Amino acid sequence: MGQAPAPPGEAVSLLIGQTGEPTAIQLLSDRRGSRVWKIQGPKGAVALKANDPDGDDACDKAAEMAQEDDHLLRLTAAGALSSDYRVSAGTWEGGRWLGVNWIDTVPLWRALALARGPEGDRASVRPWLAGIARTWTEHLALMHAAGWAHADVQPTNTLVTHAGHAEVIDYALACGPGDDRPVPYRGALTHTTAPELATEILATPADIHIQAQPPADIWSLGASLFWCWTGQRPVPYDDDLDRSEKLAVIARGTITVLRDVRPWPYPEFEDAVTTCLAPDPADRPTANELTAAW
């Protein structure tokens, strides 16, 4: 195996004020033109993101990194994001980098592993599952109140703390008011793309920006919870289909009935997830309504 790529030296030097002299640097992800490292020091840890300078889409990824930094600054100013989240950002010889506060968490899929099996049918798991959903919707409610949609709600971008609280990450694709952005929004993870977005993506040229709205986040939330609780995606289609064919299936608005695939009964949770997946955006609950429902 080759040596793991090192993080941008310029970024590591600037982040020392947050972490102290690094004691450990770990490459966490290297895919689709972006890399993420955990920078650990005696004063704390930071997640450092940077574009792959050798990737075919290096310029696009650098622009996306700059776009995410702009979104973080605007969301923080609007009170929709904690001021502790963004640490710093800048340029390096290979493009752009962004540092955000490290939070000790596990991915949503792993956090719901117990709930996916019949052994999850116990009194202690129900409030755990509901608490994850409630704290997730609280994050989204703040964004939506400020006129933003996260636009990339999916299991990979949702982490769970040891206390069972959801933390939302990755704001590069977020859609906000007066959005003059270098990278147009064309959807995110196919499996959690809302039907109305799927329809727009299929009906417009690839360079046309689509402005995601809060109800699309709610559908994606419901799809993510459905998927991570049951182990099955809410919209069934063949994995061999190309993206446009999958989007065409999603655009029809038909989903698998949750009670047919749930690992165990949880009526209140099932009802909330099902309403999130209503095909008409107007029929979905708001994030505030969901926060109360969980």
Attribute tags:
single chain, five-stranded antiparallel sheet, three-stranded antiparallel sheet, 8 strands, 10 helices, 2 domains, alpha+beta, 294 residues, Transferase(Phosphotransferase), domain 1, 38% helix, Phosphorylase Kinase, domain 1
Task: Summarize the structure in words.
- With 294 residues, the protein is α+β, with helices and mostly antiparallel strands.
- The chain has two domains: 93 residues, Phosphorylase Kinase, domain 1, CATH 3.30.200; 189 residues, Orthogonal Bundle (Transferase(Phosphotransferase), domain 1).
- 38% of the residues lie in helices and 16% in strands.
- It contains ten helices and eight strands.
- The strands form two sheets. The protein has a five-stranded antiparallel sheet, sandwiched between helices.
- The longest helix is centred in the middle third of the chain and has 21 residues.
- The protein is globular and about 50 Å long.
- It starts with 8 loop residues before the first helix and ends with a helix.
Lay out the secondary structure.
Blueprint: H1 9-19, E1 24-31, E2 34-41, E3 44-51, H2 58-77, E4 86-92, E5 95-101, E6 105-107, H3 108-111, H4 125-145, E7 158-161, E8 166-168, H5 195-203, H6 214-230, H7 243-251, H8 258-261, H9 267-276, H10 287-293
Antiparallel strand pairs: 1-2, 2-3, 3-5, 4-5, 6-7, 7-8
Helix pairs in contact: 4-6, 4-10, 5-7, 6-9
Protein name: Protein kinase domain-containing protein
Keywords: ATP-binding, Nucleotide-binding
GO molecular function, one term: protein kinase activity
